[in-house]
Amino acid sequence: MAYKPQYGPGSTIVAENRRKYMNPGHKLETVRATTDEDLVLIMGHRAPGSAYPSAHPPLSEAGEPDCPIRKIVAPTEGAKAGDRVRYIQFADSMYNAPCHPYLRSYLESYRFRGVDPGTLSGRQIIECRERDLEQYAKDLVNTELFDPALTGIRGATVHGHSLRLDEDGMMFDMLQRCVLDKKDGIVKYVKNQIGEALDREVKVGKPADEKWLKAHSSIYHSMVNTPYRDDEEAIDYIKRIHSLRVKYGFMPKEA
Amino acid sequence: MTNAIYPQVRVAPARLLNPETVEQLLNLLAAQEGIRRILLKGQSLPAEVPYGPARGAPNPHSKRRTITVLDEEVELRTHVGTIIMELESIEVLPAIRATCDEVFTRFPYSIQEGRFMKTQATTSDYAKYGPDADELLLGLVDPKSRKGPVILQGTR
Questions:
Q1: How far apart are the CA of B64 and the nearest CA of chain A, in angstroms?
Q2: pLDDT(B13) > 60
């Protein structure tokens, strides 16, 4: 029988969401329509409409060495064109943000090619070729993985994921890259991801309501969502892993 | 210096506070008798981007603004998260609780009793203020800050 990945243990909605997001066979729900130009502005690596600067000549002109691995692995569009490596970084609030750093790295590894995800406690960075990045960033921002209030696109000064929310429900941001417009209830980016002012506001939509967040969050939280201890299957699995590691630490020898 | 004989309380709302809410709360608290000192704690909101590629760029932030408390201007440099108070007597606590009930209507808060201010000068305090420092400042002001506390005339 062919191997079928299970992605992760757990019997709660949080565990189910984690599996859903990681599974490349599951089509992520598109919930907003941020344009390519909007994303280029927020990321701030190049001016919208400008050509992609390159780090090396296109592979077709480079005269690659005779390498069996290169024959097996098809280059991505960005690699083919010799694009620079650029990044997008996200901070996710622990108050029911849809995604979180570890899961981001897992799902990006399952879903995208030619990426280098970097995971930290409160933020997650993904690096890849510039034109690939723009495509992937669109998937990460326009789908259910993103909430305008609880997910921040932050290249530097990322602190906020573990802090209480603002009175208006936004995650703390020292640089206030995005603001909630009280008139129309839409979150607008006024600075790019490193904190430089944008020429125009970039709208990323309305923050989701509590019900939607609870149904889409992939974070266990004992106060605002499903507590981890309520997920018996996940706990059993962790106990099993823990037990096996400890036993292996003693180097048991088979009789 | 904080004297351990004075009781201290910490108000921790469930949300980080807007300047307007801080202004409303402080005006109500400062008008009460029996509060010796108030310390606002929260995440720093610098006027310029402190690090990263945009270091030195201006950092406009709607939560950093000047509020007015009992006719004194108080420049908020943090996004206020907790309010620590030193009281003359713990009998003031019910009045503080009533004030918080009046202000925090959209989200819950908690009040804790304990010791939240320094009880002796640190090396940094000594380096900044020297051996003859004003004892009222220690434990209240960031030793690295060039700005001092705001003195409110209060009810006296």
A1: 10
A2: yes
